[in-house]
Amino acid sequence: MKIATFNINGVKARLPALLDWLRDSAPEVAVLQEIKSEDAAFPAGPIEDMGYNVATHGQKGFNGVAILSKRPLEDVTRGLPGDPDDAQARWIEATVSGGDGALRVCGLYLPNGNPAPGPKYDYKLAWMARLEARARALLETEAPVAIMGDFNVIPQPLDARDPAAWTGDALYLPQSRAAWRRLVHLGLTDAWRALHDAPGYSFWDYQAGAWAKDKGIRIDHILLSPQAADRLTACGVDRDARGGDKPSDHAPVWAELEIG
DNA sequence: ATGGTAGGCGTCCTA
């Protein structure tokens, strides 16, 4: 089962690029971030025509997440637990059943948090604390779970071409990276880092020729529960998508799990 | 080199 995450930065502007990527990479399950669309306006038709079931958790103008799956989506839930007053659409879960087991898929768009310090950074850290609580509950199920999306965290210096440029940024501040470590240390496997020593960038700013100079960062991650990590066979970044026509500023990240 | 670019129903905000 090939699973993938892709921050598409606006589904309306990105629909041709999204359809091209789905055709070329053909993930079984894909989570999307920054759809920047309400549920009713999400262009599900052309995606369903490619054989995907679609579940969205949208919001007008900003944020918004979705899950696409060639197999039926079961038990869909929307919103990260822990704060009933949080109106930002950044979390969606669904179960995808394979022939020999089910995978709980979580798609997330973690708050950027800039400028830091400030209320946006406070929101990021509070959101990460809620994420840790949700991950702990998911791990207690002892089932295959994938928590994936745009984490807006650069875990280590290796994950940035120019780490010094990110000093003081909410994506790289010690508190952000400590919260990431607390999450992973619950018992999750960072799929890319488990299989690769290479940087594995997934984001390049539109500005200042970052893509041309490969000044990237790795912020799109796939975290696996032990029961999912046992079945991990490959992980990759679809860099071609970043170099295409009218690209997102992110590239998709995918993992292959031996779940039939 | 403290700029630069992109998307969204927007005369700015978010990234």
Could you explain how this protein is built, in words?
The chain has 260 residues and is α+β, with helices and mostly antiparallel strands. 24% of the residues lie in helices and 26% in strands. A six-stranded mixed sheet has the order 3-4-2-1-12-11. Helix 3 packs parallel to helix 4 (174-184). The longest helix is centred in the middle third of the chain and has 22 residues, at 119-140. The model has no long low-confidence stretch (mean pLDDT 97). The chain binds one DNA strand of 15 nucleotides through helix 1.
Briefly say what this structure is.
This protein has six helices and twelve strands. It is 24% helix and 26% strand.
What is the count of β-strands? 12
User: Helix-strand pattern, N to C?
Assistant: EHEHEEEEEHEHEHEHEE
Structural class: alpha+beta
The chain-level mean pLDDT equals 97
Record the strand order, biggest sheet.
3-4-2-1-12-11
Tell me, briefly, the overall form: globular
Which percent range describes the beta-strand content? 25-35%
Spatial extent as radius of gyration: 17 Å
Spans of at least 5 consecutive residues with low confidence: none
- How would a textbook summarize the main sheet? 6 strands, mixed
Q: Estimate the helix proportion, in percent.
A: 10-25%
Secondary structure layout:
Elements: E1 2-7, H1 11-25, E2 29-33, H2 44-48, E3 53-57, E4 65-69, E5 73-78, E6 91-98, E7 101-109, H3 119-140, E8 145-150, H4 174-184, E9 189-190, H5 191-195, E10 220-224, H6 226-229, E11 232-237, E12 253-257
Parallel strand pairs: 1-2, 7-8
Antiparallel strand pairs: 1-12, 2-4, 3-4, 5-6, 6-7, 8-10, 9-10, 11-12
Helix pairs in contact: 3-4
The protein binds one DNA strand of 15 nucleotides through α1.
